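User: Can you model how DQA sits in this protein?
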Amino acid sequence: MPNDTYEFLSILVLHGPNLNMLGHREPGIYGAVTLNEINRLLERDGQKLQTKVSSLQSNHEGVLVDAIHDSLKKHQGILINAGAYTHTSVALRDALAAVALPTVEVHLSNIYQREAFRHHSFIAPVAIGQISGFGAQSYLLGLQALVNHIRKTTADSS
Ligand code: DQA
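Assistant: Here's the modeled complex, given as structure tokens:
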């Protein structure tokens, strides 16, 4: 649990392609929650965890790669739902490996219950872990896990 001795952390939250359509997009799979609502929930939980949350959504792979590069020296960790790029993007995987910040991968849907092409993630091997299938809650669980991991590794190394 946070206490007064914790430093404020800064986490970059990246949302990949089509996630701007949440609320409208395939509600049977992704639910009714909008991206704005998810970002608000992340900010709320971030405050409880003494963590600033900066969110970016893009439908463009290069914009996401640039944001990952820019995260160095600005953020202590990355929470990412790469959307369909999860299953296709060596470039996003390489960018995450290059900056080497602790990263947690999240998905609203359970990608392993869905089509076979969604079962492989290029992000998973460069992430601390993955949370999949809990709707908006996946993001909140992911944020908590990421912050706990960063606090623990910082404490262990000091
Ligand atoms: C998703 C799962 C992906 O397979 C899909 O392409 C998405 C959303 C999810 O959050 O469940 O765009 O990442």
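A couple of observations from the model: Residues 9-157 form a domain with the Rossmann fold fold (CATH 3.40.50.9100). The CA atoms of residues 1 and 49 lie 8 Å apart.
User: Helpful, thanks.
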